Amino acid sequence: MGKNYRSELVGAFGCPIDENPTGVMEEAAFKAKGLDYRYLTIKVNEGDLEAAMKAVRVLHMRGINLTIPHKVEVLRYLDELSEAAELIGAVNMVVNNDGKLWGENTDGKGFLTSLTNEGISVAGKTITVLGAGGAARAISVECALAGAAKVNIANRGRTRGTELALLINERTSAKAEYIPWDNALEVPADTDILVNATSVGLYPNVNDKPDVNYDTIKPNTTVSDVIFNDPHTVFLQEAERRGAKTINGLGMLVNQGAVNFTLWTGVEAPIDIMTQTLKNEFGLT
Ligand code: NDP
């Protein structure tokens, strides 16, 4: 048999995409495992996704990540969905199985692993989620599927918040409640795990924090933030000051990337290398 000069291709479609660091992390992982894979960070404008998804098949790409604004629209171009992706209603990664495109959502799985790595289980717990967008949906659904007893959803926009609560109540065994969020949020007293799944605090607005009455955070609460490019968001600092255990968003990013790596390659992901690569990218020690 002749030598193979063709690399397996994966990557990401999004817009904006230029500042997405996932490729550096995945390429470091491929190298560490001696895999001939390339991760391409590709700008795909809104309205161009259909053509881009055709290209996944035509170019025999092994798979693709989807980010803003394509996570929901991509559902139209897929052949199959995982149970979680179907429930979440959004896909952040696709595997191309000989021309059949299968969609999965690994954001919530990455979040759960980042908790597990800190010795925290969601089983039987009450989770209070700030936000009802893509990340919040993924986190809420995966927590419910992993046995959380209750999911409180606080969101500014009523429609998105009530829709997510309804979905969890109707489609999972967890209970869910929508909490209107007009003024400083009083964290529900039964909260075991509080998650900021809004985009508040995202670079460059690093001094912003969600509108919460931080004195209602109890010291036995675990507080987590999805924001990944700042390990000490103001939100986490406020929680730390109230004695809470805090978990930043880097672990979620690394762990969803690790699940994607394994789904594409069938090989266990080198988590330590992926974590260190991202820390280097963000100038963290
Ligand atoms: P969406 O646009 O889908 O959702 C944004 C959410 O933030 C909505 O619930 C919105 O509320 C809420 N929000 C925005 N501004 C405010 C505000 N000022 N006060 C209160 N709520 C606000 O975004 P995503 O869910 O896709 O992303 C959210 C964050 O998660 C981003 O920062 C993203 O980078 C991060 N993320 C991190 C990942 C990781 O691996 N760590 C993975 C995926 C995402 P409303 O409905 O009222 O507008």
Automatic annotation (TrEMBL):
Homodimer. Residues 121-199 form the Quinate/shikimate 5-dehydrogenase/glutamyl-tRNA reductase domain. The active site is at residue 71. NCBIfam families: aroE. Residues 13-94 form the Shikimate dehydrogenase substrate binding N-terminal domain. PANTHER family: BIFUNCTIONAL 3-DEHYDROQUINATE DEHYDRATASE_SHIKIMATE DEHYDROGENASE, CHLOROPLASTIC, SHIKIMATE DEHYDROGENASE. InterPro entries: Aminoacid_DH-like_N_sf, NAD(P)-bd_dom_sf, SDH_C, Shikimate_DH, Shikimate_DH-bd_N, Shikimate_DH_fam, Shikm_DH/Glu-tRNA_Rdtase. One of its GO terms (biological process) is shikimate metabolic process. CDD domains: NAD_bind_Shikimate_DH (cd01065). This is Shikimate dehydrogenase (NADP(+)). Residues 249-279 form the SDH C-terminal domain. NADP(+) binds at residues 83, 131-135, 226, 249. GO terms for molecular function: NADP binding; shikimate 3-dehydrogenase (NADP+) activity. The lineage of its organism: Bacteria, Bacillati, Bacillota, Bacilli, Bacillales. Involved in the biosynthesis of the chorismate, which leads to the biosynthesis of aromatic amino acids. Catalyzes the reversible NADPH linked reduction of 3-dehydroshikimate (DHSA) to yield shikimate (SA). The keyword Isomerase does not apply. Shikimate binds at residues 67, 92, 107, 256. Pathway: Metabolic intermediate biosynthesis; chorismate biosynthesis; chorismate from D-erythrose 4-phosphate and phosphoenolpyruvate: step 4/7. It is an enzyme of class 1 (oxidoreductase).
